[in-house]
Specification:
The protein is α/β, with parallel strands linked by helices. It is built from 28 helices and 21 strands. The strands form four sheets. The chain has an eight-stranded mixed β-barrel, surrounded by four helices. Helix 1 packs across helix 2 and helix 1 runs antiparallel to helix 4.
Length: 713
């Protein structure tokens, strides 16, 4: 009987587990890690519900951020790890069937709200701690008042020994006495402070009720008040304090003095501001990040009648070449310089520049005349990129392609605007780059059609014209069938059966490789499940299915999500799947390209490096790739079909196998056509093989027949 796939609660639990493992090491708590996970589970559910709610509610994110502080996650690293975890896994495990682009935008906004809630809660926690100190001081105010009447010596001991700033003024606001802590906070002598009027300390950031509360206190209507207040120091810097002011009465109960207790919170406030800044700005360039930009864009698109917007979507031409030739550090310095130049281009009211990621930037202008201002903004950007940029002593010429979208507010969503700008930018890039293009609804439609309906592939997929053949993978040691590679075929109505090399390049060019690849993956995993259910996993052994991934699929943001959903729907464990990626697709791969593969490998999915030896890659790169299997290209083993085999080829294969095994990688060989070839590969230490010697690709029934023959001897 088939195992039921994990439901929403199981995926929610998995997200909470990942979250707790990331944050627990930097949390000050006496709880165990499982206990901490249970505390995070309601927060995970809160974020999940907010992610899929009909209307977005930032309060859920702020509440989750505040709850982290309540759970003693007050270290800034806890917030950083939380935001990374939410960014990587919230949509993956809690997005269900929602629109991916919208969900990711919501996730970014939730992260922003969580950072804000965290900062606010941290501030309130600090205020609460300070209030406890203040209450203790207030409880002592009676003693202080009595000491004023009783003995100056006793008063001085309490007054000067206090760790917080204390000042006493009369009811007219004239400062009478201050202690050492208060003098140090202001950087003034006692003579400079005494005699000043409290009313001189007005600050532009004073809360509206500040001086109303003061008037009520000195008039006797209020006994005390507490608030956050800023003061100017003599050097012009700002002192932020938690201020508690209390009324002191004489023996007859009449108001006599006002007592101020101050704690310096300047550093803590700066920390909160820094957390807010880091949550909304790009760490490398200092520009607003994607989440902040989407907030501004949505606000611009929701403006009133008569308001318009203009957006410039910039992608640098040839930036990957800089990273590949000079290294990522040089690429980062180039991006910082570009960001500075772009920032200088958007200084007018209603203009902003942001970095979306990588070498992609956006500039936004708003107002009533954006038809003119957006063109001027794009021209300024192009002019700003004209001058070469010096990096490591090299003068680099910077080029960029810009897609411009302009229009009235209220007609399109932020996602639609950005998609149109992206399409227009690529149109500028395909026209030679170093230029800008204006968005054209008809051109947008042609681009979408060109990637969808202009070929027969979408119809073929809908009509079920594709089918899969399976070629067994055989263990060279004992000859047992260990699994199969899935090979897609197209039964074309006019041309008959077409092999992958006839239509896969077309699918990659049109972008349809993604839905086709998703279909192949799901059908293959379902077939593996049928083999297990119909013929028994114990009898046949742990059959594994190998599925090829194209370079286009590697860059598709839904790769990890699709794989997780397929495995869960079919009830298969991740280790039953091996994804094959060609070596050429991973040569020079950056961390962004490897990130989804690493996530899949962490889940337990095997990654095989296909056609190994044809890409001329640096063997040292194997250490950074998340692969567990090397598939030797058939060109290395062709000479082994003859006897004797070429000794040079034998040495090469032997060296590759030795290197792979030293890195804990299994070695699979394809193209095995003779028994002598298979025996030689076994002697050289190869693990598994496939080829016509064992079986040609065929229907799924052939594989389980071979496996049953092997299992029964």
């Amino acid at each position: 009987m088939s195992a039921e796939p994990d439901g929403p609660e199981d995926r929610l639990r998995r997200f909470a587990t990942i979250w707790s493992r990331a944050v627990f090491p930097v949390t000050s708590t006496s709880s165990t890690r499982p206990e901490f996970e249970e505390r995070l589970l309601p927060l995970a559910r809160l974020l999940s519900e907010a992610l899929r709610a009909r209307s977005f509610d930032a309060d859920a994110g702020r509440a989750a951020g505040a709850a982290l502080v309540e759970a003693h996650c007050t270290d800034p690293e806890a917030l950083s790890r939380t935001l990374d975890c939410v960014d990587a896994y919230l949509v993956l495990y809690c997005g269900e069937d929602g629109d991916r682009e919208d969900l990711r935008a919501r996730s970014a906004r939730l992260q922003h709200a969580m950072a804000a809630g965290f900062a606010q809660a941290l501030r309130e926690r600090t205020l609460a701690e300070q209030e406890a100190v203040a209450r203790a001081a207030l409880e002592a105010q009676g003693v202080v008042a009595q000491a004023l009447h009783a003995t100056e010596a006793r008063f001085r001991a309490v007054f000067e020994g206090a760790a917080i700033g204390i000042g006493i003024a009369d009811l007219e606001g004239n400062v009478l006495q201050v202690n050492g802590a208060l003098r140090r906070m202001f950087g003034l002598s006692e003579q400079a402070l005494r005699g000043r009027s409290v009313k001189e300390w007005v600050h532009p950031d004073d809360a509206p009720q500040t001086w109303r509360l003061y008037d009520e206190l000195v008039s006797g209507e209020r006994e005390h008040y507490h608030l956050e207040k800023a003061f100017y120091r003599p050097d012009g810097t700002v002192l932020w304090t938690n201020l508690t002011v209390s009324l002191l009465r004489d023996a007859d109960g009449d108001p006599q003095y006002q007592l101020a207790l101050m704690e310096d919170t300047t550093e803590r406030r700066l920390l909160n501001l820094r957390l807010r800044y880091e949550a909304t700005h790009d760490a490398l360039t200092g520009l607003p990040n994607r989440a902040f930009f989407f907030e501004r864009l949505e606000k611009a698109l929701g403006a009133g009648e008569g308001q318009r917007f203009g957006l410039c979507y910039l992608d640098l031409d040839g930036f990957k070449t800089v990273n590949d030739s000079l290294g990522h550090a040089a690429g980062d310095r180039l991006l910082v310089e570009v960001a500075d130049r772009l920032q200088a281009c958007a200084t007018a009211s209603g203009e902003m520049v942001a970095r979306l990621g990588g070498d992609e930037f956006v500039a936004l202008t708003t107002g009533s005349d954006t038809e003119r201002t957006v063109d001027e903004l794009a021209a300024r950007i192009m002019n700003a990129l004209l001058a070469p940029i010096s990096v490591d002593g090299r003068e680099l010429t910077v080029r960029g392609s810009i897609g411009i979208v302009e229009g009235p507010a209220g007609e399109r969503s932020a996602a639609e605007v950005l998609r149109s700008a992206d399409i227009t930018m690529y149109r500028a890039k395909s026209a030679g780059g170093n230029r800008f293009e204006l968005a054209d609804p008809e051109a947008d439609a042609r681009a979408i059609t060109r990637h969808g309906l202009t070929t027969a592939l979408p119809t073929a997929l809908d009509r079920g014209e594709f089918f899969i053949e399976y070629q067994p993978l055989v263990h060279l040691g004992d000859g047992s069938v260990r699994g199969a590679e899935a090979l897609v075929r197209w039964l074309h109505p006019q041309h008959g059966v077409l092999s992958p090399d006839r239509f896969i390049p077309l699918a990659e060019h049109t972008g349809l490789i993604v839905p086709l690849g998703r279909w192949v993956l799901e059908q293959s995993v379902r077939q593996a499940r049928e083999w297990r259910d119909r013929h028994g996993g114990e009898a046949l052994g742990p059959l594994r299915i190998n599925v090829n991934l194209s370079p286009c699929q590697l860059t598709h943001p839904g790769l990890v999500q699709d794989t997780v959903e397929i495995l869960e729907r079919t009830g298969m464990e991740p280790d039953a799947l091996c994804l094959e990626v060609t070596e050429s697709a991973l040569i020079g791969a950056d961390d962004d390209l490897l990130k989804p593969l690493r996530r899949l490998a962490e889940m337990g999915v095997d990654i095989a490096l296909d056609d190994f030896g044809t890409g001329y890659s640096n063997l040292a790169n194997l250490r950074r790739l998340p692969v567990s299997v090397l598939k030797l290209d058939r060109s290395f083993t062709q000479s082994m079909q003859r006897f004797p085999a070429d000794p040079v080829d034998l040495k090469i294969v032997e060296g590759i196998v030795s290197l792979a095994h030293s890195l804990d990688l299994a070695v699979t060989v394809e193209g095995v056509e003779t028994g002598a070839q298979a025996e030689q590969l076994r002697i050289l230490g190869c693990d598994t093989a496939q080829g016509w010697y064992y079986a040609r690709p065929g229907p799924p029934e052939r594989l389980h027949e071979l496996a049953l023959v092997d299992a029964t001897g």
